[in-house]
Every structure is written in structure tokens, then in C-alpha cells.
Amino acid sequence: LNYVDQWGKKLKITSSYFFNKSDNQTLQQTNRNYLDAALAGMSYEEYKENYLTNWNHRFNFKLDYQINERSSLLFRPSLSFQNMDSNNSLQGTNKTYNIGADLLFRHRFTKPGRTLSWMLSGRMSNTDGSNRSDFTDLLYSSLEQNIPEEHSQLKNNIKKQYSFCSNLTFTEKISDELQLQLGYKLNYSDSENGQKTFVSRLDEESYEQLDENLSSIYRSDYLTQSGNVGIRYQSDRWNAMLRLETQWANLKGDLTYPQPEHHSRSYFSVLPSLMFHYVLDQTNSLQFRYRSIT
Fold first, then answer.
1. Under DSSP, is residue 69 helix (H, G, I), strand (E, B) or coil?
2. 8 Å CB contact between 233 and 239
3. What's the pLDDT tens digit per position in 187-227?
4. Are 48 and 133 in contact (CB under 8 A)?
5. Helical H runs in the chain?
6. If you ran DSSP here, which 8-state letter would residue 213 be given?
7. Do residues 250 and 266 touch, judged by C-beta distance below 8 A?
8. Contact by Cβ (8 Å): 292, 275
9. Which residues contact residue 264 at a Cβ distance below 8 angstroms, ignoring those fewer than 6 apart?
């Protein structure tokens, strides 16, 4: 579903909505025999029969506002939902949402070639899920009799992420072929990833035994700030850009489960980049790109 309209002389609206639903079936059989001396005589059998239903909703919106003949404002929010349900031998549910928005301001000064643009961008996503699977351990005893042990496993997963970006760019015309570009960018992201795994016997109704080997909770913060200066050259056949960027970054990580740990690192980088495009004739051209990133 799409909608496009002009509201007055200065405002243009564009929006869309998307929905789909899918049903999937998966069958999987696993047979595993251990030959290692520490696990000699042990085997593992697993059977999965999964029916998956998936719903997706996506909303997109764009608002383009012409403030005056030299300034404009562009706003683009977005929203999406996803829900997945699985049943039978592997049972679980997974819910995800993503929210984001971009705001861009652009201005042209009276002097030709002098421009200013400022972009703000934010994102937020969250995923909550849980799934249950049943499995059987077969242990051979000294009497060569199979001793089955049936278990059930429940995994609770969570993933959260927040991010913010700001980008400021200024351009200045030096001559008919040369243009100066200055920029400053800030990026920040905060993420949390966690999984707790509980096990129980099939004849038990509750999942109270925590499997620490399959459980963890980790949170990280990543902040970068960078400034750049560039020179652009443009003529009938040539289009070249040389830019130098300096970046400062700080990464922090906290493991809160199962054992508390803290990590913090700072980085400083110098990142050059080069691009040129040369037109040989009407059908052929030569292009070269070099970029360094972290």
C-alpha cells in the first residue's frame, strides 16, 4: 500500500505499508556417536519437527518540506514488527520490532558552492524470544544396555540495540574545478545480548535448572567521533576526491553473567580515502577507489 500527496506548495508526503505472512515446515533428524575416550559409548539422538508461522509489518514515511528557496527539511521515520511462532517438537516464539528516523537539514548560501547539511539519525530495535526443544541421551552401560535419558531445554533470548548518529557537512567552492569539504560525525550505539538456558527432564513441568555453559548476558557501548577534510576536483573528463579523516573511538563491554567482567578500549585512527573517475570516451571510463575504515 502506497500513498503520495502534495500538501500545499512546500510539503510533499510519501508513505507505504507492507504486510506478509508465511508458513514453513522443517523436519530434521540428528544421530551422533562419540568416539572420544572421555565420551566413549555415548550417543546422541535428536528429532525436530517444526512448523513456523511468520508475520511481518513494515511502515515507511517521508516528509519533504521546502522551507524556502535555499533551505529544506527531510524527515523519514520507519517502523517494523515481526512475530514468529513455532510448534511441535521445537516450540518457541520470537518477537522483534525496529523503530528508526532520519532528519536531514540542507541549506545553500548565496555564494555558489557554499552549502551546509546536518543529518540526525536514530534507531532502536528489540528482540524477545524463547524456544523449547526435547532431546534424548543414550549412555551405554558396562552390560551394553542402552540407558536413555530424556531431557527438555528452554532458551530465553533477548537482544536490544540503540544507536544515534549525527553528521555535519560544509562545502566551499575554491575555483571552478575545486571544492573544499569539511565534516564532523558522531556515532553512538548501545547493545545488550543475553541468553539463559534451562533444562529439565521430560517428566517435569518446570524449568529450574540453569545451564551456565549455554547462558550469558553481555552489554556493550561504542562511541566514535571523527572529523574530516577533503578536496574535490571536477572537470569535463575528471572527477576526483581526496579525503583525510581522523577518528577517536571508545568501546566498553560488561559481562554481567555468569561471571562479571568489564572491558574498555580506546582507539585513534587516521583514515585516508581516494576516488577518481576518468572518462576515456563515450562508452569507456576508468575508476579507482581506495577507502580505509575501522
1. coil
2. yes
3. 999 998 888 888 776 566 677 777 777 788 889 999 999 99
4. yes
5. none
6. G
7. yes
8. no
9. 250, 251, 252, 253
* Cα 173 to Cα 276: distance, rounded to the nearest angstrom: 19
Residue that the C-alpha cell 579525503 belongs to: 243
Q: Report pLDDT digits (tens) over 262-275.
A: 889 999 999 999 99
Which one, of 56, 62, 58, 30, lies nearest residue 44 by Cα?
30
Could you tell me the end-to-end alpha-carbon distance of the chain, in angstroms, rounded to an integer?
A: 39
Number of other CB atoms surrounding residue 90 within 10 Å: 20
CA–CA distance, 73 with 11 (Å, rounded to integer): 10
- Report how far residue 9's alpha carbon sits from residue 42's, in angstroms, rounded to the nearest whole number: 76
| Category of 203 on φ-ψ map: left (φ > 0), alpha (ψ -120 to 50) or beta | alpha
122-135 burial code (b ≥16 CB/10 A, e <16): bbebebebbbbbeb
Contact 285, 277 (CB under 8 A): yes
Burial of 200 (0-12, 13-18, 19+ CB in 10 A): middle
pLDDT over 70, % of the chain: 87
35-36-38-41 Cα dihedral, nearest 10 degrees = 0
- pLDDT at position 124 over 70: yes
Q: How many alpha carbons fall within 13 Å on the CB side of residue 56?
A: 8
SS (HEC) of 55-73? EEEEEEEEEEEECCCCEEE
Dig out the grid coordinates for 24 from the structure.
514453513
Q: Residue 17 pLDDT more than 80?
A: yes
pLDDT in the model for residue 39: 64
Taking CA atoms, 9 is separated from 62, 66, 104, 106, 108, in Å, by 16, 8, 19, 18, 19
Question: Taking the CB of residue 155, how many other CB atoms lie within 10 A of it?
Answer: 19
